[in-house]
């Protein structure tokens, strides 16, 4: 019988009664969201309820809070965490030294920047092997053979002074 109760507690579809309005039956998976909504709708009831320090889903009358704290099932989880911390269990995990080292880097961005000519980036164009006095670019398509770059933009380019729309041209 106790095992069934444990599974029922974990069931996200089980119904829980709202502490603000006893007529509200809420699915467990939606309960935290409902609490926020009902707290705003029933501020006079919210003032009379206190939140359990071990589980924010537990809202009890302020007069019964100390009794609830002594009997709360979720208190065991917090106590277990305190025991683990005092025994140094988690400190050992946090202080573990990583043996990972970054792989060596052969890139030198400053040198590459000085070696490249000062030319603007153009998609689909390459400027490798071009001297700075030359203005012709060799066109190279780096896309896979199954993918084709568009030949024109699908929108108006305002800096060209054209007010007409430019459309894609599909070539078969």
Provide keyphrases for this structure.
single chain, 172 residues, alpha+beta, 6 strands, 9% strand, elongated
Plain-language structure description:
This protein is of the alpha+beta class. It is built from 7 helices and 6 strands, in the order H-E-E-H-H-E-E-H-H-H-H-E-E. Strands 1-2 form a two-stranded antiparallel sheet. Strands 3-4 form a two-stranded antiparallel sheet. The chain has a two-stranded antiparallel sheet with strand order 5-6.
Low-confidence stretches: 129-135
**How are helices and strands ordered from N to C?**
HEEHHEEHHHHEE
Mean of residue pLDDT values = 76
Proportion in helices: 25-40%
Q: How many whole angstroms does the radius of gyration measure?
A: 33 Å
How does the helix and strand content classify structurally?
alpha+beta
How much strand content do the residues show? 5-15%
For the record, give the distance between the C-alpha atoms at the N and C termini, rounded to a whole number: 71 Å
Gist?
With 172 residues, this protein is α+β, with helices and mostly antiparallel strands. It has helices at residues 2-10, 31-41, 43-48, 65-71, 75-86, 89-94, 109-115, and strands spanning 15-17, 25-27, 49-51, 59-61, 125-126, 138-139.
């Amino acid at each position: 019988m106790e095992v069934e109760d444990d599974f029922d507690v974990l069931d996200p579809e089980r119904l829980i009664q709202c502490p603000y309005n006893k007529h509200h039956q809420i699915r467990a998976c939606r309960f935290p969201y409902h609490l926020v909504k009902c707290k705003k709708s029933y501020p006079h009831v919210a003032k009379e309820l206190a939140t359990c320090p071990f589980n924010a889903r537990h809202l009890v009358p302020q007069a019964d809070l100390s009794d609830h704290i002594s009997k709360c099932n979720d208190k065991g989880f917090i106590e277990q965490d305190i025991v683990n911390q005092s025994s140094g269990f988690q400190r050992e995990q946090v202080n573990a030294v990583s043996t990972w080292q970054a792989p060596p880097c052969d890139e030198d961005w400053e040198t590459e920047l000085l070696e490249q000519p000062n030319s603007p980036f153009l998609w689909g164009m390459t400027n490798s092997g071009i001297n700075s006095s030359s203005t012709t670019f060799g066109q190279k398509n780096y896309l896979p053979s199954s993918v084709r770059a568009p030949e024109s933009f699908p929108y108006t380019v305002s800096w060209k002074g054209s007010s007409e729309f430019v459309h894609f041209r599909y070539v078969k």
